[in-house]
Amino acid sequence: MKFMLIMHGNPQIWDALTEQERNEVMGGHGPFMETLRESGEMVGTVALADPSQSAVVRVRGGVPAVTDGPYLEAKEYLGGYYLVECDSRERALELAALIPDAGVEGLGIEVRPVLFAG
């Protein structure tokens, strides 16, 4: 079964961390990725740039209109994800608990089954 382990960022929470705490979270992703590679459960991972660097494209009357991001005014933004393939939902939950962001007060990892991947 494939699962997305989705990391949402909250700038207010991130900014409240010390530099050392931020470095520990970021540095913890390397060992986590190595764990996934060694277990054979890693399908892929993506880290996204800050929402301020995004753009939204809408086509109205056949004319594209581009608006600089972020798309929504929100407290949390999609920061990235791990795509894993594992035996069960329980295993996906175990893996999500190993992601450093899960240990930050106010943050969590969303675990969502993948229905289709092309």
Biggest sheet, in brief?
4 strands, antiparallel
What is the residue-mean pLDDT, rounded to a whole number? 93
How large is the count of helical segments? 4
**Strand order across the largest sheet:** 2-5-1-6
Which bin fits the share of residues in helices? Answer: 25-40%
**What's the total count of β strands?**
6
> Whole-Å distance between the termini?
15 Å
Structural class: alpha+beta
Percent strand equals 25-35%
As residue ranges, the low-confidence spans are: none
Short description:
This protein has 118 residues and is an alpha+beta fold. Helix content is 31%, strand content 34%. The chain contains four helices and six strands; from the N terminus they run E-H-H-H-E-E-E-E-H-E.
What does this structure look like?
- The chain has helices at residues 11-16, 19-27, 29-39, 89-98; strands at 2-9, 42-47, 55-60, 63-68, 77-85, 109-113.
- The longest helix is centred in the N-terminal third of the chain and has 11 residues, at 29-39.
- The strands form two sheets. A four-stranded antiparallel β-sheet has the order 2-5-1-6. The protein has a two-stranded antiparallel sheet with strand order 3-4.
- 31% of the residues lie in helices and 34% in strands.
- The model has no long low-confidence stretch (mean pLDDT 93).
- The relative contact order is 0.32.
- The protein is globular and about 50 Å long.
- It is of the alpha+beta class.
